[in-house]
Structures are given as C-alpha cells and as structure tokens.
Amino acid sequence: MKFFVDTADLAEIEEAASWGALAGVTTNPSLYARIGGKLADFPTHIQRICELTNGPVSAEATGEARADIIREGRELAALAPNVVVKVPTTIEGLAATRTLADEGIPVNMTLCFTVPQALLAARAGARYVSPFVGRFDDIAEDGIEQLSYIVSALSNYDFSSSGVLGPDGKRQSIEVIAASIRSVQHVTQAALLGADIATVPFNVLKKCVEHPLTTNGLAAFQKDWEKVTKA
User: Fold this and answer.
1) How far apart are CA 8 and CA 5, in angstroms?
2) Phi-psi bin for 125: left (phi > 0), alpha (psi -120 to 50), beta?
3) pTM here?
4) Is 90 exceeded by the pLDDT of residue 129?
C-alpha cells in the first residue's frame, strides 16, 4: 500500500517527503482554507506542492456543472505534470471525468461512499477513487467495511479499457485511495483488505511510525550503550 499525505501545509509535506516513503499528496478546499490560503495564491501553492513530491498531487475542482469542472480540471492539470484533478462523485462529476480522462487528465473521484459509485467512477475513466472511511464512522456505520466492499468489487473487473489515457497512449486502471483516515488502525485495516493507497493526515502519519515499544526499546539500548562507553 502506498502512502499519501492529506494536507495543504507545505511544511508537513516537506517533512513527510523527507522520510522517503511518501508517494503523493491529496488536498481539498477545506485543507487549503485551514492553512489560511487565498484564492489568488492557490495555483502557486499547488505548484509548490508538486515540487515537493514526485508523486501525484490531487487538487480539487470546485465547480458543480460538468462544463465548469472540465474547465477547472484543464486549468489545474496545466499547473504541473503530476496534478490529479479531484472531482466529486456526482452525475456531473462522472460526465466531466469521462471528458478529462479521454484528454489524458487523471481524475481522483472523491466523496465516494458506495460500491455503485466506485464502479461508475471506474467506468467513467477515473484514475483513482477515494472512499471515505471516517465519515461513515461519524454516522455510526463501519467505514472500513464499506471500504472492503469497494476494494472487493473493483477487483472483480478489468477497467483498463475505460481508464484514463496515460502518457504512453495506454489506458491506466483505477486505484483505490482509502480516504478520511482518522487513526493508525484505519491504516492497518485498509492495508489488510488491499487498498492501493491510504491518504493520511500528517498527525496520523507520524503515529504510524511511533510505538511505545519502539520508544522504550530505544531508550533501553541507549542506556546500555552508555554503560559500554563509560566502562
């Protein structure tokens, strides 16, 4: 499973990239607003994120009508070669995704919650689909179970003939991004059920590295090594 970081904070992205395990970045309007982002600075901000990672960077189109989504998608894709356009899983979003995919612009269909939505996204040519785990948990439903249904359903079929056109002229099949991740346990469960990618908030990504037994073991090693150096 690949790790994306779910943030618009440049410092967080730069730090996560320095670990050597970061495969991409996802952003959305809420994350950009959280860092105090301004509309005029948004294109430059996305370009800076793209410079910090070699992987795909998801930037969201905010239009609701297909024509607006397509226009925004083209504008976003022109910012950098590794931009992926985030499009909501709606009827208008599906129509826009088909157009963008046929133009070779990769799409991440976001706000996906059901198997039919994911299947339709795949048939429309989405490069990625992002089932939201935590938001199911917020309404007392099992988000990981819903994610497992989507991973299983998509694995039953070959979507390579309907995917986005890649740089080599071949169509690329869809990948599942486990999104709305709230905990290390979410990450573990997503990996066990076979999600291709987990996009993780920076604070959760740090917790994925940390464990009290690791911390305690390191402290014990250091204490014993001090005895050796003082002997």
Assistant:
1) 9
2) left
3) 0.94
4) yes
Q: Residue 116: pLDDT above 90?
A: yes
Measured distance CA(14)–CA(10) in Å, rounded = 6
Burial pattern 157-185, b for ≥16 Cβ within 10 A else e, equals eebeebbbbeeeeebbebbbbbbbbbbbe
Distance CA 10, CA 96 (A): 29
Which helix (H) or strand (E) is 86 found in, with range?
A: strand 83-88
Q: Is the dihedral of CA 122, 128, 133, 136 positive or negative?
A: negative
- Cα separation, 150 vs 125, whole angstroms: 16
Say what the pLDDT of residue 161 is. 86
Structural contact between residues 106 and 56, judged by C-beta atoms closer than 8 angstroms:
yes
pLDDT of 220: 92
Tell me, what CATH number does 190's domain have? Answer: 3.20.20.70
Number of domains in the chain: 1
Residues 87 and 81: their CA atoms lie apart, in Å, by 18
pLDDT of residue 145: 96
Choose among 71, 108, 111, 105: nearest CA to 90: 111
Least confident of 42-46, 91-95, 137-141, 190-194: 137-141
Torsion angles phi and psi, residue 77, rounded to 5: -65, -25
Catalytic residues: 86
Residue 173 pLDDT greater than 90, yes or no: no
Domain span at 171 = 2-230
Tell me how far apart the alpha carbons of residues 131 and 150 are, in angstroms, rounded to a whole number: 8
Length, in residues, of the chain: 231
